[in-house]
Structure formats: C-alpha cells, structure tokens
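dumping this here before i forget
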Amino acid sequence: MTAEELYEKLRKAQAPKGYLFNRDKEFVMELLNALLVNKQRYGYMSCPCRLASGDKEKDRDIICPCVYRAKDVEAYGSCYCGLYVSEEWNADKIPHVYVPERRPPEKIDF
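structure:
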C-alpha cells in the first residue's frame, strides 16, 4: 500500500467521525509513510511520533488512530502528532497549541 492509498482509505473512514487530516498534506504524507514503515517493521501501524516496543499488546494504545486521539482532538483540536485535527483547527478558528503526551510513563518504559 502506498501513502496515497492509505490517505484515501483513512480519510474515508475517519472524516465521517469528525477527524480530518491536517491541512498540510506534505506533513500528513510524511506521517503516513512513517505509519507504513512501522507496519513493515512491527506488523502494525504504531504512532510514528512515539517509540514502539515491538510488542503489539503493549503498543495497542498507540496503534493509529491511538486511543488518545479523541481526547486530544476534543481538548486541543489536534492529536499528539498532528495527523488528525478538527475542522476548527484546520480553519484556524482555534489556536494551534502543543498537545501534551497522554501516554502513561509506565507504557513508555520498556
């Protein structure tokens, strides 16, 4: 699968749920390529902005879209890595601020 194919597949699945891709398509394509690299590397598409352990069960919370996305987008208009955003974020109706890491430290130490 190519990044462009993944883009279309995810866009069709996520947009109806209110999750849009960041309007910076070049940035989005870099993240999608990184997801595909992680799929080859680990067998699953772990978040490219977090360090995966290689153990799918341990990383289940960071398989894209991660379990933190909904709260991040609700609170900040963007997920942690900036792949998924709200319509308001894309339209500059809300500030683009740093999204803090929600993943618990015990999940990061492996």
